[in-house]
Amino acid sequence: MILTIVKYGHPVLRQKGARVEAITPEVDALIADMLETMYEASGVGLAAQQVGRALQVTVIDVRPVKDRPSRLEMNGQEQDPATLMPLVLINPKITPLGEPAKGPEGCLSFPEVYADITRPESVEVEALDRQGKRLHFKAGGLLSRAIQHEVDHLNGILFIDRMSAEEKANVRDEIDALQADTKAALKIR
Ligand code: ZN
Q: Is 78 a catalytic residue?
């Protein structure tokens, strides 16, 4: 089922996700719906908050992006990132590695807003997968960026919070208008 993607201005985007204590049939169905919704929206990642659920669950698939490379290291060996896709992360913990790198980002909760964001180039990830199995790997490039963006969502952090003052000034009018539209639709002030 395709879910409605929540836009900036909705308070759920600022909520920290609750830990998932058990992968119930409801959680599994949510994951299936999140994957379907992400593909339909042509996104590379989607967090539970973006479909209105404050939970530590995110889905990622970097395979459609051909011009920005990803790296994956598992069990001390370089692997094809495609082997891990689609990637489902439950209760993820990330540790930044490497130097800060700047790269373009968008967000399905901010249609038409794009900016360069600086984040560590790579990251170490510990999480549970869809089956509840422990995942432990290192990611680089686009995969690292996508994971950091989505894990931020799970903590109520948005990419506008990571923009430089200059980048934020460039998109200020768009994000203010988006926030006002969302709040008007929700009838909140
Ligand atoms: Zn996002």
A: no
